[in-house]
Amino acid sequence: MRKEKAREARRLNMLTAQGLSDSQAVNLPGMFPEWNPNGVSYGGEGETIIVRFEGELFRCINPHVSQADWDPKTAVSLWVSCADPAEEWPEWKQPAGAHDAYSEGAKVSYNGQRWISNVDGNVWKPGEYGWNIQE
Q1: What is the pLDDT tens value at each position of the chain, 135 positions in all?
Q2: Distance CA 2, CA 103 (A)
Q3: What is the DSSP pairing of strand 113-117 with strand 64-65?
Q4: Running DSSP on this structure, what letter comes out for residue 102?
Q5: Residues paired with residue 101 on neighbouring β-strands, in sequence order
Q6: 3-state secondary structure of 3
Q7: Residues 20-52 as b or e (16 or more Cβ within 10 Å = b)
Q8: What is the enclosing helix (H) or strand (E) of 110?
């Protein structure tokens, strides 16, 4: 009986954690399960899924069944990194599409310089289009 209650409490905590925003989630990484490559169903209708992988948190953006070569760092069409709001100038990452494009005012570091996006939906590399360099 005690094990069953403990299991139910863990499940409830995990469900509660899945409703957190990225900025809340990065402060509670232990609340999220490790990514599993062995045929686990991630995502679904209205379901938010956040997992840990190699010390980072990732949010599922497209429902799928996991497999070893679709890990969160490799399968960018399935996962997006949960940004750490404490990091003012995170390293620029190539967006996979509209779901993780940079918004106007987004700050990034790229090639040792700091950039601010001057357009919404920015998928361009800093220095190509849509970015202002900060001196």
Answers
A1: 676 665 555 555 555 667 777 777 777 888 889 999 999 999 877 676 899 999 888 888 889 999 999 999 999 889 888 876 667 888 888 887 887 888 899 899 999 999 999 999 999 999 999 999 997
A2: 48
A3: unpaired
A4: B
A5: none
A6: helix
A7: beeeebbeeeebbeebeeeeeebbeeeeebbbb
A8: strand 107-110
122 exposed, middle or buried (CB, 10 Å; 0-12, 13-18, 19+)? buried
pTM confidence score = 0.63
Q: Nearest CA to 73 among 51, 98, 89?
A: 51
- The first and second tokens of residue 100, run together, are 């993780």
* Rounded alpha-carbon distances, angstroms, from residue 81 to 4, 6, 42, 133: 33, 30, 15, 24
Q: Where are the alpha helices (DSSP H) in the chain?
A: 2-18, 22-25
Specify the amino acid at residue 133. I
Q: Tell me the C-alpha to C-alpha distance, in Å, between residue 114 and each of 52, 56, 77, 82, 120.
A: 28, 23, 26, 20, 18
Instruction: Say if CB 59 and CB 48 are below 8 A apart.
Output: yes
